[in-house]
Write a structure and sequence with these properties.
Oligomer: heterodimer
Distance between the termini of chain B: 69 Å
Distance between the termini of chain A: 50 Å
Number of domains of chain B: 4
Structural class of chain B: alpha+beta
CATH superfamily of the largest domain in chain B: ATP-grasp fold, B domain
CATH architecture of the largest domain in chain B: 2-Layer Sandwich
Radius of gyration of chain A: 22 Å
CATH topology of the largest domain in chain A: Glycoprotein, Type 4 Pilin
Order of helices and strands of chain A: EEEEEEEEEEEEEEEEE
Number of domains of chain A: 2
Helix content of chain B: 25-40%
Shape of chain A: elongated
Low-confidence stretches of chain A: 82-90
Helix content of chain A: under 10%
CATH architecture of the largest domain in chain A: 2-Layer Sandwich
Strand content of chain B: 15-25%
Chain lengths: ~160, ~500
């Protein structure tokens, strides 16, 4: 018997596979998948239904599922084999560039008290302007970008700490 | 002699519109040239042209001298600008003509006239079209307080050089005005190199309806029907259709009359779009003229049966405009949905990445204009439009059903897109009823949860099964699995064996 945790965003499913039998969150589901080629195309068969899926790993425990004009990203863990080791992708309160682009304007200065959701930086990418908003209430500890600066994805822009 | 004999067309654009134009060149037997920047050296559009000229760094699609030089060096006789980039730049059109080439579009002076939205408003008023109340001159650099207090709010701050929904901000009160003027100026400067702005009344609960016109430059103008483009996000159109739902024949005729009157007064040459707002009292107001082919032109092609690019090329080749208004009949209904590199589940943030899987939609009544290929890199250098799905049906509800079917066939892997959001919109009751305005998406709440429970449970199982097979196959060595050396076959084989148990 194998046990998997499959998460789509914050919705988690426990999948148990035991030979031919499978349950999802305790409810039995009878389905199999077959690979149609070596590039990730699969057929999900359930009863008389055949559904085309495209499955591909972006890393070891992240799986992209394409089906019916929709795209799901699943995080899969097998609790019996290995523990989740992944930490948080960034420290809380650190705002980084979500995209490569141009910093248009910084809207705050060091020491400013900010609210959650308050715009801190204006960026432009793909000809669109977007506001980078604070993920928490607090105080601006440091600013790492200035107007006119070209930044890569993930470049730290502003650090907000608890007030 | 066939149309376009002796012509060689360079397309000064990229992406799906470059491919769209190059396809018609191929069909007409007209030799074609594509241009591409260094980041676009593998782009799909260059493979649809007879020749491709590299024009340097990524911003060079906007460099007039470079683009004209590319045309001259390749022996092109005409330039098609597509939409965006230099398509509405009068200096470009002038430079093309001064280089002895044909500009496939309106005369440079028409582009200049329509490019200044304040002048365009005046031209429309002179032709007897209703325009929205607003300032008839540019705003001063610093808006005086007395002026800000006299304005009726909410009001739109609009870039005079604007277009495509850029350089527009909404001010709700005199307190907000100064900030919004600054923001509009910044965006206008970045997008158009000109930060002149003016004020225009905001029409609440308005619909965006536009008329496709085609003129021969001598005063003969035909209307090729209208399009409804009210489904917009951040003033960017997302879903467009032809004809407009819920307008009477009388209103439609009035719309065509106004548009052809304006076209005639300009002695309009080539393709153009006259944009209107329709308010809650069924009153039309002129907004602007787009002197170029539009992103949403396919819906017009689907209901008129015309190839609008072919019409442009024929006019540019010196053919007379044979079409008469009575020849234009609209058949059925067409809807277009824009597939964007934007994550609809994450605030529509633009996304980049490699396309790891692609299956485009097809079947009866479906057209896909796409720049995608499996393996393509989506970069942050240009706008986020990846492809357009257009569905035709004998009536609006059939067109919606087809579009829904087509969008659910479409699979794009590697990056998130807005495909699921498009599906949610066209499945919403108000959209199906044709009852929506330009603010529809601001308040839009999908009626059904994004992913049904049952469905997601199955996807969870599929993911787990895949993961299990992957782990198993990685522990089996090729020599002992009995069906050769590829794990794909062995997985399938095992599954088949299981099925026969």
């Amino acid at each position: 018997m194998t046990l998997y945790n499959v998460a789509f965003g914050n919705r988690e499913y426990q999948v148990q596979i035991n030979g031919e039998q499978a349950t999802v969150n305790g409810e039995p589901v009878k389905a199999t998948i077959q690979a149609l080629n070596r590039d990730g195309l699969h057929l999900l068969r359930r009863g008389n239904c055949a559904v085309e899926l495209h499955l591909s790993n972006s890393d070891e425990d992240t799986l992209q599922v394409l089906v019916g004009g929709r795209r799901f990203v699943a995080r899969i863990t097998n609790p019996l084999r290995h523990k989740r080791t992944r930490g948080q992708s960034g420290a809380p309160g650190s705002l980084s560039a979500p995209m490569p682009g141009l910093v248009i304007q910084t809207l705050v200065k060091e020491g400013d008290v900010v609210e959650e959701g308050q715009p801190l930086v204006v960026m432009e990418s793909m000809k669109m302007q977007m506001q980078i908003r604070s993920t928490q209430a607090g105080r601006v500890a440091s600013i790492h970008a200035e107007a006119g600066q070209q930044v890569d994805k993930g470049t730290l822009l502003v650090k907000v700490v608890d007030n | 002699m066939s149309t376009g004999a002796g012509m060689k067309v360079m397309v000064a654009n990229r992406g799906e519109i470059a491919i769209r134009i190059l396809r018609t060149c191929r069909e007409m037997g007209i030799p074609s040239v594509a241009i591409h920047t260094d980041v676009d050296q593998f782009a799909l559009h260059i493979r649809h042209a007879d020749e491709a000229v590299m024009i340097g760094p990524k911003q060079n699609y906007l460099d007039i001298e470079t683009v004209v030089q590319a045309a001259l060096s390749s022996g092109a006789t005409a330039i098609h600008p597509g939409y965006g980039f230099l398509s509405e730049n009068a200096d470009f059109a002038r430079a093309v003509e001064e280089a002895g080439l044909t500009f496939i579009g309106p005369r440079p002076e028409t582009i200049a006239l329509m490019g200044d939205k304040l002048v365009a408003r005046q031209a429309a008023r002179d032709a007897g079209l209703p325009v929205l109340p607003g300032s008839d001159s540019p705003l001063p650099m610093n808006v005086p307080i007395e002026m800000a207090q006299k304005v009726h709010y909410p009001v739109l701050v609009k870039a005079a050089a604007g277009g495509g929904g850029r350089g527009i901000r909404l001010a709700r009160s005199s307190k907000e005005l100064a900030g919004m003027v600054t923001a509009a100026r910044q965006e206008a400067m970045a997008a158009f190199g000109d930060d002149t702005v003016y004020l225009e009344s905001l029409v609440q609960e308005a619909r965006h309806i536009e008329v496709q016109i085609l003129g021969d430059g001598q005063g003969h103008v035909v209307c090729l029907g209208e399009r409804e483009c009210s489904i917009q996000r951040r003033r960017q159109k997302l879903i467009e259709e032809a004809p407009a739902p819920l307008i009477s024949e009388g209103m439609r005729q009035h719309l065509y009359d106004m548009s052809s009157r304006l076209g005639r007064s300009l002695k309009y040459r080539g393709l153009g779009t006259v944009e209107f707002l329709l308010d809650a009292h069924n009153q039309f107001y002129f907004i602007e003229v787009n002197p170029r082919i539009q992103v949403e032109h396919p819906v017009t092609e689907m209901v008129t049966g015309l190839d609008l690019v072919k019409e442009q090329l024929s006019l540019a080749a010196g053919e007379p405009l044979f079409l008469r208004q009575r020849d234009i009949t609209l058949r059925g209904h067409a809807i277009e949905a824009r597939v964007l590199a934007e994550d609809s589940q994450n605030g529509f943030m633009p996304v980049i990445g490699t396309i790891t899987y692609l299956k485009e939609a097809g079947g009866p009544g479906v057209r896909v204009d796409s720049a995608l290929y499996h393996g393509m890199m989506v970069t942050p250098d240009y706008d986020s439009l990846l492809s357009k799905v257009i569905a035709w049906g004998e009536n609006r509800s059939t067109a919606i059903q087809r579009l829904r079917r087509a969008l659910s066939e479409y699979q794009v892997g590697g990056i998130p897109t807005d495909l699921d959001f498009l599906l949610q919109i066209i499945e919403s009751p108000d959209f199906i009823a044709g009852e929506f305005t330009t603010t529809y998406l601001e308040k839009f709440q999908p009626s059904a949860p994004v992913h049904g429970d049952e469905f997601e449970r199955e996807m969870a199982l599929a993911a787990a099964l895949y993961y299990q097979q992957k782990q198993r196959s990685s522990t089996i060595t090729p020599a002992t699995n009995g069906v050769g050396d590829n794990t794909w076959q062995s997985t399938a084989w095992r599954e088949q064996m299981r099925g026969t148990n």
